[in-house]
Amino acid sequence: MKKTKPVVIPIENGKAELVVQDAESYQELLVRDRLETIEGIKSGLESTKYRRGKPATEFFREFFAEKGIPEHE
């Protein structure tokens, strides 16, 4: 198992329902995911610090209009 890629076991409709992999690979995946999350948070905080971006009300107004979703007050 350590020398191969994770094993994907399709159980229903050909979709992956179960993945078997070694613990070390799984831990590496968790660490990588955590690091990416931290980088995303840092980036967001930096954007806020330098006033990049837009207010949430403006973002949601544009988002709802783009998706054709009626706004609620």
Tags for this entry?
73 residues, alpha+beta, 2 helices, 2 strands
Write the layout of secondary structure elements.
Layout (H helix, E strand, L loop, with lengths): L6 E6 L2 E6 L2 H27 L6 H12 L6
Describe the structure.
With 73 residues, the protein is of the alpha+beta class. The protein has a domain at 24-73. Helices cover 53% and strands 16% of the residues. The chain has 2 helices and 2 strands, in the order E-E-H-H. A two-stranded antiparallel sheet has the order 1-2. The longest helix has 27 residues, at 23-49. The model has no long low-confidence stretch (mean pLDDT 88).
Order of helices and strands: EEHH
The main sheet orders its strands as 1-2
Based on DSSP secondary structure assignment, what is the total number of beta strands?
A: 2
What would the average pLDDT be, to the nearest integer?
88
Largest sheet: 2 strands, antiparallel
Principal-axis shape: flat
- State the end-to-end distance: 54 Å
Strand content: 15-25%
